[in-house]
Amino acid sequence: GPLLHIIAAKAVAFKEALLPSFKTYAQDIVGNAEALAQVFVSRGIPLVSGGTDTHLMTLDLRHQEITGRDAEVLLDGVGFTCNKNAIPFDPLPPRVTSGIRMGTPAATTRGFKLPEFVRVGGWISDLLDAFSHKSAELDALQRKMREDVTKLCQKFPIY
Question: Domain containing 151 — which CATH number?
Fold first, then answer.
């Protein structure tokens, strides 16, 4: 039979989607994704599609000589959530991959705007560069970045 809780949830979601604030929120998500993508491209980290017009992007890490799995673990360790993702004609197996996928909805929901996404893009680029160049400063950079990410998130609490 009908699942009334699902019907009610859809009704609330449809009502919210009709609000002007939802349109603004959706535009912010895409604008933030475009800004984040521009940072990566400007730092020499190509995107599979060359850019984004949605809330998601996939970074091609082959030029950084870092696997998607390593990048996923590295970024998670400082507080950035992404997932390893295969790229077209990926030379690496699916459990390893040559790319990572990330999006902007969660941070946009917290209140991040363009300046925060530009900062985050720089941090991620710095960390990937340090890892791929086997920098002796990687551990110190990770510690500092974990602190910086925590401070930034404290400025934009979830509740």
Answer: 3.90.1150.10
